[in-house]
Specification:
It contains four helices and no strands. It is mainly alpha-helical. It has a single domain, classed as Orthogonal Bundle (Non-ribosomal Peptide Synthetase Peptidyl Carrier Protein, Chain A). The model has no long low-confidence stretch (mean pLDDT 92).
């Protein structure tokens, strides 16, 4: 799966689950719990499971603790890293 495809699929998850569109590149680095995006902790839980199911990955506790699950770009990068690990068999 190409990085652009991952990004588009992730955007579809946000649109479908939260009716949220990332029209501006500035939003891609905004904190998901912040004022501009405005998700709450329950929303992040739904997002967590949607991502695991859609991309067939496991999001580790370490990814949450190290704040990789805080912005669209961080999540996208985490998915790309996980998919590349699965592809090369790590």
């Amino acid at each position: 799966m190409v990085d652009q495809e991952i990004q588009e699929q992730l955007k579809r998850i946000f649109k479908g689950r939260f009716d949220l569109e990332f029209n501006s590149d500035a939003l891609l680095d905004e904190h998901l719990l912040g004022r501009r995006i405005g998700l709450n902790s329950r929303d992040l839980l739904y997002l967590f499971f949607d991502i695991e199911e859609t991309f067939k990955i496991h999001i580790s506790q370490e990814s949450i603790v190290t704040k990789k699950f805080t912005t669209f770009n961080n999540i996208c990068q985490m998915i790309i890293e996980q998919k590349s690990c699965y592809t090369i068999g790590i």
